[in-house]
Amino acid sequence: MPSAIPGIHHVTAIASDPGRNHDFYTRTLGLRMVKRSVNQDDVSVYHLFYGDRGGSPGTSMTFFPYTDARPGRVGAGQVSMTQFLVPEGSVDYWVDRLADEGVDADEPVERFGDTVIPFRDPDGLPLELVARADAPDGDPPEGPVPAEHAVRGFFGVALTLQTAEPTAGLLEEMGFDAVEGEGDRQRFRADGDLGYVVDLLEEPQAPRGQPGAGTVHHVAFQVTEEEQAEWREVLLDRGLRPTEIIDRKWFKSVYARTSGGVLFEFATKSPGYTVDEDLESLGERLVLPEWLEDRRDEIEAGLPDLDAN
Ligand code: ZN
Questions:
Q1: pLDDT digit of tens for each residue in the chain (309 aa)?
Q2: How far, in Å, from the CA of 251 to the mean position of ligand 1?
Q3: Ligand 1 centre and the CA of 267: distance in Å?
Q4: Separation of CA 160 and ligand 1 centre (Å)
Q5: Ligand 1 mean position to 136 CA, how many Å?
Q6: How far is the CA of 100 from the centre of ligand 1 (A)?
């Protein structure tokens, strides 16, 4: 058995307007754009990565913003909630900030002893800020949110499933232990200090989710390069159909759709987002894989201006 997975590596979602997406995640939430690239299957669409100063594993939220994307529907077989970790004393700051920014947010609620602020991004993507005393100091970027209140990275995700069982078994094999439950929510916890929670929301009658703007495409978990092939074997042994190991330049990836319908990725912690750019200038320039470099002018001309608004 490969060693236990410490937590989430990244979460990838679909958005519509790229400029609005960029403004929300960098200015409103205060994350740093750590990589500006393109969808390798459709180079007229960005692939934008937001995270802490260096985009450490457990901090990066990534988007494919399709300007004309139709809204999706959050439902069964999807990551239905993405949760960010903030310090315990930051609840009032964030309630005020989200209100000042006109964000679609709810009143804070208590869950398993933590204060949670539910809100939606401009495409309606469901998000939560979870305030905890054990939030690590981390490496927050310079920006509009003071470091003491900055988003530290992920707390976790929730998956909506018609049947929780096969996914629960996989999570336990991955190193997430069932720790507490309440109603339809069963919480699984890994040993890391970011992205260490997966909540399973079992809703037998929930309609299947529809992909589109405001929905999550997949959740990636952190593995080591040495153990990635072993994880692939674990997935095969469970009757899933993992992809081959794919080189994404900033990490290597194996993808598998779980029995509950959610797409999982197993991504390596290394080499990370500084493999092709200096830490100081991360995200400033469009980064392309080598095989697209000779089309750079054409590709740049076909992409919207992110910094216009
Ligand atoms: Zn991914």
A1: 899 999 999 999 999 999 999 999 999 999 999 999 999 889 999 999 999 999 999 999 999 999 999 999 999 999 999 999 999 999 999 999 999 999 999 999 999 999 999 999 999 999 999 999 999 999 999 999 999 999 999 999 999 999 999 999 999 999 999 999 999 999 999 999 999 999 999 999 999 999 999 999 999 999 999 999 999 999 999 999 999 999 988 999 999 999 999 999 999 999 999 999 999 999 999 999 888 999 999 999 999 988 755
A2: 9
A3: 7
A4: 19
A5: 24
A6: 32
Given a contact cutoff of 8 angstroms between Cβ atoms, the answer to whether 186 and 165 are in contact is no
Residues 3, 73: Cα–Cα separation, whole Å: 35
Q: Which residues of 227-238 are buried (b: 16+ CB within 10 A; e: fewer)?
A: bbeebbebbeee
Q: 12 alpha carbon to ligand 1 midpoint, in Å? A: 6
Ligand 1 center from residue 7 Cα (angstroms)? 14
- Domain architecture of the chain: domains with CATH: 8-308 (3.10.180.10)
CA 13 to centroid of ligand 1, rounded, Å: 9
Kindly give the distance from the C-alpha atom of residue 130 to the centroid of ligand 1, in angstroms, as a whole number: 23
Q: Give the full edge-to-edge strand order of the sheet including 8-15.
A: 32-39, 42-51, 60-65, 8-15, 215-223, 263-268, 252-257, 246-247
First-to-last C-alpha distance (Å) of the chain: 49
In angstroms, rounded to a whole number, what is the distance separating the alpha carbons of residues 131 and 34?
A: 24
